[in-house]
Amino acid sequence: MDTCTLEETVVAALEDIKAKDIEVIDTTRLTSLFDRIIIATGDSNRQTRALARNVHDKVREAGAPVVSMEGEETGEWVLVDLGDIVVHIMQPAIRSYYNLEELWAAPSTLRRGRAAASVAAQ
């Protein structure tokens, strides 16, 4: 499955369970380890686990492999490794503290929130 299709599958799975502040960061020019980071917020341990499980299930249904999933025990920060895409699902305090968006800061042409992405798609 190509990266764009995988990205769409992940974002749709996150939106299904009402993830907040979904952000997609294109890392193709920053690292060779993966092509995208997708960051989303869940309001509770239960929601972050449900979001991660839904991403896992939808990606598998689409025929793509899931490399690993970590953090389900606590649900504060769940990471879903899809190979070309790494998905971080966090509770608000954890997301604010670690601020991965700033860590992976890139030129604005490489980074987009969901609102910017929908405007660009028009």
From TrEMBL:
Quaternary state and interactors: Interacts with ribosomal protein uL14 (rplN).
SUPFAM superfamilies: Nucleotidyltransferase (SSF81301)
Compartments where found: Cytoplasm
Organism: Aromatoleum toluvorans
Annotated coiled-coil segments of the chain: none
Family label: Belongs to the Iojap/RsfS family.
Signal peptide: none
Residue intervals passing through the bilayer: none
UniProt entry tagged with the keyword Acyltransferase: no
Gene name linked to the record: rsfS
Protein's recorded name: Ribosomal silencing factor RsfS
